[in-house]
Design brief:
The protein folds into two domains: about 1-40, no CATH class; about 50-80. The protein is built from three helices and no strands. It has helices spanning about 5-25, 35-45, 50-80. The mean pLDDT is about 80.
């Protein structure tokens, strides 16, 4: 490998890395306490009106509610016992 080829490759990699860093700085994948709307659009925009995607979303919501109910019951049992 010649020195010029190596330098060209390094330069290309540096440019690509700058692009990745610029993209990464614009996209935030989570905000404490709530979900980033841009992430929701990125993940679910392509699945708009897709029955399987809606089924998954409902299953996730049901599981979260089940976990919340279990947590509430455990706290109430601790409060009653304590």
């Amino acid at each position: 490998m010649t020195k010029a080829t190596l330098e060209e490759r390094v330069t290309a990699l540096e440019k690509e890395m700058e692009q990745v860093k610029a993209l990464r700085s614009r996209v935030r994948y989570g905000v404490t306490g709530r979900t980033n709307p841009q992430l929701i659009e990125t993940l679910f925009g392509v699945f708009a009106n897709d029955p399987e995607a809606e089924e998954v979303a409902h299953a996730i919501a049901a599981e979260r509610e089940r976990e919340r109910a279990q947590s509430r019951q455990a706290r109430e049992a601790d409060d009653a016992a304590g």
